[in-house]
Amino acid sequence: MKILIIGRGAREHCLAWKCSQSKLVSTIFVAKGNHAINKIASIIDIEEDDINGLLNFALSEKIDLTIVGTEKPLELGIADLFIANGLKIFAPSKKAAQIESSKDFAKNIMKECGIQTAAYKTFSDYEEAMSYVTIKGAPIVIKNDGLAGGKGVVVAMNVEEAKSALDLFLNKNIYGEKKVVIEEYLEGEEFTFMCLVHKNRFIALPFSQDHKRAFDNDLGPNTGGMGAYSDMPQINCYEEAIKNVVTPLIEKLEEIEIPFTGFLYAGLMQTKDGIKVIEFNARFGDPECEVLLPILDIDLVETILNLLDESKEFTSHLIFPISKCLGVVIASKGYPENPIIGHDIFFPENKNILIFHAATYFKETNFISCGGRVAVIVAIDDNLITARNKVYTYIDSMNLTDDFFYRKDIGNNAFKYLNN
Ligand code: AMP
Ligand code: GLY
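Above: the input record for the complex with adenosine monophosphate. Below: its predicted structure, written as tokens.
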């Protein structure tokens, strides 16, 4: 079979790596990919938002299955376009992808099917939003209504911070949209729950925990994610998450004729009143993908094809991990606001480590950084603490210059629940 993966980051590198182990797969293409992916797949020079270009490529290459990693083509309707042209694609329709691309849409659906989430209000008017924040006080959360690569969210611990976010989002229009969701601040432990979904069928994956803030101890701005691990010794509420979040959501989407297909991402908070949803995404999490796929004993392509095959009986189920996994993101100095790129980075050979490249290119003999998140260093072990030690020992061996930084506390929330 020929597989096309859409995206260019560490998540797509990991998807290509997992697909390369499938007994069904002969060829993998990644558009637009990155140089490191070249070792296991062919990288194709088509931008992720050029959905017509991708369609022409998929038709001419007779691609058997397309897997979409990144969100932009989903919002543009790549799934609708591919399906209309007789191609198989594991991705949500443009309408279903609104679960991620419009916070307002997601919040309304949750309200309709009784999924617990933070109370919220939507604003387009700057003055109205400012008075609302003055009345509500802090902590409070300001979210841009639209895609912003995980960066359009400000968790404001004081009113000044909230007001400067409103200025950026509604006055200066930094994300091009003019709509914000202002949300109640939720307190608790955050975790990620992802499922492979087709209509009302799903395969639930182990919980993982991302580290969204840029710096240690959850300080600094929100990022796309600075590191993750799976599974989580401290959270085990699979039944509740399936019964109260995933099932009502996918059933509601089917009922309103916007069925979901693809990777469904639920960002959840375990609060004192039970699980509440922070956000849904219509794609695999990044870097959560990189710490999940290595510990799933499945043929990913076969699993997706079975899920999509409506002629076959299917029982929704949970997959258990075969080991533990932890990954640390190496980022460019200045990420997320202003990453300084163009620096050499060395990846010594090490068979105990998996390296998924996010933003590098190869020049002569070296990799050079070309984006905010540069690579994810991943280790697998029966013990999460040993996996962590393997990752940090490897990072030490990279002799990183000050052009890069990484968090040194990935996994710390879990370690107190484990024996050393
Ligand atoms: P989002 O893009 O909606 O996932 O938000 C990014 C990050 O901001 C989340 O992963 C949380 O860490 C934090 N966050 C978002 N919404 C809330 C909330 N209502 N209460 C507390 N933290 C939040
Ligand atoms: N790591 C968070 C996300 O992929 O949205």
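Notes for the reader.
The mean pLDDT is 95.
Residues 324-419 form a domain with the Glycinamide Ribonucleotide Synthetase; Chain A, domain 4 fold (CATH 3.90.600.10).
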